[in-house]
Amino acid sequence: MDQSPRRPLSEDIYERLRDLLASESFPRDSRLPGEVELARRFSVSRPVLRQALARLRAEGHVVSRPGSGSYVREPTRPASPSFGPLHSIPDMRAFLEFRCSVESEVAAHAARRADRAAIATIRQSLQQLEQDAAGLEADVVFHHAIARASGNRFFVTTLEAFHEQMISGIRLTRELAGRPEGERRPEIAREHARIAEAIAGADEAEARRAMADHLRGGIRRLFGA
To answer: Of all residues in the chain, what percent carry a pLDDT higher than 70?
Structure first.
């Protein structure tokens, strides 16, 4: 049994808030939702939320304006620009193959180490993804939640570093896939649910297979068999 220490809940909320700030919905000087709304959205207490917000303020991402709320000072960005944009269809295929290798291991580690809070976060992100099937950010947030559940900050940093490539890849796959979107969505939803349940069941081998099958499915949907 893995004896790795569990992370504070505030650290998980901090990372989820960073994902939120990285989305196009919160440019510089935009106002964040109030504490009550954010606490409800993330299913945490306000003291836990305040700890996460305090860290964002200390890092210069958020500023508090008395009587007005919290505002974005500088949106968060992926940890490293070294991956660069996807320039071509072969580049896209190479990126999906890279994700398959990395994220299948991320899912296996998440199955080994995820605690109840991490599993709840994954399921919440899955529910959000099912409600907003067309949303690009919701898909990325689901994969980021799995990385955080792994308990390995290097996995988290790696996925953050290719955040924009993930968005581009999902968009391109949807635009160029040969089958109609209505046919693809149920299949993709089943793939996501399979990953989440394998992690919740602490089944490392199945989590690894489920993630690999999901990303190989993306290659198949885009490029064919």
So the answer is: 88
